[in-house]
Amino acid sequence: MASSIGSWLVVVAALLALPAAAAIIWLLRQREELRAKWNAATRDAETFSDQVWQLSEREERYRSLVEAQGDLIVRRDGGRIVYANAAYATLFGVSADDLIGSRMKLPRLASRPIVVLEGGARSFDECMATHQGERWISWVETAVLGPEGHKVIQRVGRDITARIAAEDQLVGARAQAEAANEAKSRFLATVSHEFRTPLNGILGMADLLSDTGLNAEQATYTEALRSSGEALLALIDGILDVAKVEAGKLELVEEPFDLVPLIETVTELMAPRAQAKGIELAAHVAPDLPARLVGDRDRLRQILLNLVGNAVKFTGCGGVGLSLRREGTGIEIVVADTGPGIPADRLELIFSEFEQFEAGAGERQSGTGLGLAIVRRLVGLMGGEVRAESQPGEGATFRLVLPLPAAPGAAAIPVPHWPRQHVLLVAPSAFAAGFLAETIRATGAVVSVATTAEAASARLGETATKGQGAITAVLVDHALGDAPAKDLAEAARAAGIADCLILLSPFERRLFGQPQAAGFSGFLIKPVRMRSLYERLGAGFPQVSPAPGARPAVGAGPRPVGVGLTILVAEDNEINALLVTRTLERFGCTAFWARDGREAVQRVEASFAGTAPPLDLALLDVRMPSMTGLECAREIRTLESRLGRAKPMPLVAVTANVAAADREAAFAAGMDDCLAKPLERAALLRWLKQLSRPPAGSLSA
Question: Which letter does DSSP use for residue 532 in this model?
């Protein structure tokens, strides 16, 4: 105060020292400056007031926006609520003002794991007991600045009760679907066993009946009986395979297998059906492919049988060709036919379940329409791809690529070396001529192909005229006709060609008579096996080593493979038991029948005690009264352990269900193998051959 008065005294003294006019001017200036400062202060005050009003308006707008949306918002400072919107307050059934300053919390009934988000925020779901009942809230929790400048915890939540209920319903529906699928699988497994048991009897008895010297009419009826049973069995297998794939229970195996025998088996199984329709079926395996691959042999065979069988079904004239070649680290398989073709809009639909292509009005084929659907699913499980290519009227081609690597140490398919040979191939076929030509060219030989008898005769005439023997061997397809084929054999002999083979189907072979009497040096059965082609054709070539891998057929020779073996057949179905025992007897075995598992164990006990003939093998049906086949196997293994027998008796399970789980259960019970019903002769032969080997040989099926 004193300093302020002093300042004014100094100013007054200065004014008194100035002239009157100067003092007045100075005062006026001071007044203007003060007025300017006052006006500026007034404007600043108005601007501040406007800013305060705008901030208040924005805050109110923000508050209204927050209150308007359905999100739940609450802020807590050390557990005390410093802010809550109306949506959050409704959970308590009070107003937002009632919550401010309180520590009220809702009871938590359940929660889900916390997820830490980017920036440190946390997200979690809670089920809370609210004023409105149980509600699921999804929260996002962050740290924000409070009104006093320090951080508080803010939670923003959203009611997800409806979503959780929908998820629970979905989980329940999935569980019900899985339970229903499991029940369906169990039902199909049970029904398949019941179906296969009588089918086993039908097909087996048809085989036995066909071996009894039937006349032509009886043989026709027997073949119809067998083909009908096989068709029904194929339908059952197709339905079961689809069910297994849908249930995710179809398991693939990865094991080495021989490629060429597999392909030849497929073509030989399908050949009778094709030849009965008057069409050809041929196969070709590229010689640069490995002889052994790694994969699921049985499923690959199923794929090929479905594709080839489908092609044969829809092909009325011409033929079907199956070829394999290398494709990267895997193989490409092509099945082509000369059938009616498939419209472009049907190329994908034919891979769907129960879809069938109708070539024309009233031409729908029999079957379930599951074959191609199963093919696509199996190929997908193997990691491959399959597609169809076709134009109406130009046949159809199915291409699939499978990642089947070569087996460790696998060599290429063995091929002889014929660099100085020239083979004339006479065949009018759509596929066989080209396939045979490629197979022969792989040896280094020259191949000439003629599709008509006239063209072949002209080529042989040139050879005879030149007299140089340019052609060293001739292959003639009987499809040319009986007389033209025999005329070509005569022309070959006139040209000085001694090696002349005729290609015959099994039916043609029975009617043709002795090939030598017709002027041929030998014959080959269609579809022609690669090994047979190299052996028969190479037999007339000088200085040629025999084809590698040549061996006699299983069970060949004057002595039946099962002579001296005693087999126990445990089977509760009388027809199936009769079938198996008669089949074993035809192989030279002595077979004993046990009607159930208990009788089988008693027979084995008597064998071990020496009061009954010793047994070399026991075939145990898995499903039998009194004692199942698995229980029977466990009982026998326990008996062997108790008696201290050094060499266990071979036990083989026989069942309609041969899924991986069924096989594992059989092996866990002590079985040495698990064979499927209907019991195939080839499967029995493999075991009989193993049992007939010297004791040093290993026993495996």
Answer: H
For residues 419-429, one letter each, b for 16 or more C-beta atoms within 10 angstroms of the residue's C-beta and e for the rest, the string is: eebbbbbbbbb
CB 488 within 8 A of CB 459: no
Would you place residue 677 in the very low, low, confident or very high pLDDT band (cuts 50, 70, 90)? confident
- Which is nearest to 392 in space by CA: 338, 446, 444? 338
User: 400 to each of 333, 378, 389, how far by Cα in Å?
Assistant: 5, 11, 11
Q: What is the pLDDT of residues 20-53, one digit of tens each?
A: 666 677 677 777 777 787 777 777 766 766 665 6
Is residue 226 within 8 A of residue 207, CB to CB? The reply is yes
Q: Indicate if the pLDDT at residue 341 is higher than 50.
A: yes
Q: Which tokens in the block code for residue 126?
A: 């809670």
- CA torsion 46-51-52-56 (nearest 10°) is 140
Cβ neighbours for 226, distance < 8 A, ≥ 6 positions apart: 203, 206, 207, 210
Amino acid residing at 339: G
696 confidence band (pLDDT: 50, 70, 90) = very low
Residue found by looking up tokens 């499980």 in the block = 381
pLDDT digits (tens, 9 = 90+) for 576-601: 888 888 888 888 889 999 989 999 99
What per-residue confidence (pLDDT) applies to 397?
93
- In 329-452, which residue ranges form alpha helices assigned H by DSSP? 371-381, 432-441
- Report d(CA 270, CA 276) in Å as an integer: 10
Name residues whose C-beta falls within 8 Å of residue 589's C-beta, 6 or more positions apart in sequence. 562, 563, 565, 566, 567, 688
